[in-house]
Amino acid sequence: MNLNFKNLFLKKLIFGIFFINFFSLCFADNLKEVVNNSIKTNLNFLNSQNELNNLKENIIQSKEKKKLSITGFLNAGKVLDLDCENNNNGCFSNSFTSGISNNFSLFDGGIISSEIKNNELEFEIKKLELENLKNNLIYDVTEAYLNVLSDRNLIELSKKNIQVLNEEFKATESRFILGEVTNTEVAQASASLASAESIFASRIGALTSSDLKFENLVGYKPKKLSEITILPVLPKTLKISLEIANSKNPLISASKLRVEQSKILLDIAKNGPFLSLNLTSDITFGKNNNSNFSSADLMVVGSIPLNSKNRFLSEEREAKNNYLISLTSLDLVVKNVESKVISAWSNLQVTSSIVKSREKELQATILAHNGLKEESSLGLRPTIDIFNSEKLLFDSNLNLERAQKDFLLAQFNLLKQLGILSISNF
Questions:
Q1: Buried b (16+ CB within 10 A) or exposed e, 172-209
Q2: Which of 90, 123, 191, 340 lies 20 to 30 A from 51 at CA?
């Protein structure tokens, strides 16, 4: 009866463990979900979105200036007749006036149209800056995500290393009691175990730092995180990478629009001073003590500055300087982006080679370690060789884990420098 109870208990325990692990995997956060959440909650990104919305309103407001402006007015009060000789209140009369006033711009030298175009360009530039901000945010979150995953994996490696070294230490103590090994070998086993425990403590500290950076970016502490299984699609050559950067990088595209924007402002400054023509009309209805009255008028009103030559010349020089600055800035941005793309491409090739080397290193280390253990069991190798081999095996696993993380991060960094890193990459 007791045996059946124990078997039933073990079955339930195993099922419970399986159930917990299964659902923890099902509800684990993946990189795409984490990135989406960070975009929705990042204050800088949200502020930039609001600024973009304001620029959209500026476009609407500037377009309204080209439309007919209709204004209604209403006045009521008392009017004093200065020629009145009556000392009583007879010199004051009640007055009431109402009407509609219309104004329409016939010609302004293209100022309003240029203002609309300028606001539209400013809106497009802000969209590109927002895209670049999003591009950088996705990379930062990806880096934080990978750091947490990697540090957790390194902690698991450290735990396994401590477990193995602890078993080796106990075995060495038993052999010392039997007189098979010396006290020096026991001390060496103890030192190896202490070193492994020290490394484990440093890994805990590194994970704490990674968790904090993750929380600052995403808004909550990292929970169960899924491994990254889908790798991003990358350009096949450096030449293609540079072509993509020049055509799609938001920083380069924004700089090109800045040049266009400054050229528009320069053209406006060159055409000044401006003649402006406005069509105005008024319809007025009124009443006072003596009579009712009404009137209507239609006029074309023109104006041109007469004594602002120096101001307009100064504005033209300023606009020309701004245009030259925008051209230089574009050149600098292109060179800076291309430099970062070349560096990212080079880093991608290096990290790829390192991963392959680390994989070969681990395979060779495992083979050598198994051989050493077999030779040690036959008494052909001293105990210290086993501990050194365990250390080499641990270091090989650690190096491979780091290399794989660096290689994966290098892939996302290339997309970031190209300016095309997005949620669709996950």
A1: beebbeeeebeeebbebbeebbebbeebbeebeeebee
A2: 340
Rounded percentage of the chain residues whose pLDDT exceeds 70: 90
309-377 vs 250-271: helix crossing angle, rounded to 10 = 170
Listed range (112-126, 220-234, 290-304, 384-398) with the worst mean pLDDT? 290-304
- Distance CA(254)–CA(121), nearest Å, equals 9
**Span 226-255, mean pLDDT?**
94
Which two three-digit tokens encode residue 325? Answer: 């600055």
Residues 6+ apart with CB under 8 A from 132: 250, 251, 254, 419
Give the Cα separation of 396 and 357 in Å (integer).
10
Tokens matching residue 119: 């606001």
pLDDT at 6: 44
| Distance, CA of 203 to chain centre | 28
φ/ψ of 280, rounded to 5, equals -125, 150
User: Are the C-beta atoms of 200 and 162 separated by less than 8 Å?
Assistant: yes
HSE on the CB side for 424, CA within 13 Å? Answer: 3
Report d(CA 113, CA 60) in Å as an integer. 12
Name the pLDDT band for 97 (thresholds 50, 70, 90).
confident
Indicate the burial class of 144 (C-beta count within 10 angstroms; 0-12, 13-18, 19 or more): buried
Whether residue 86 has pLDDT greater than 70: no
* Three-state DSSP class for residue 235: coil
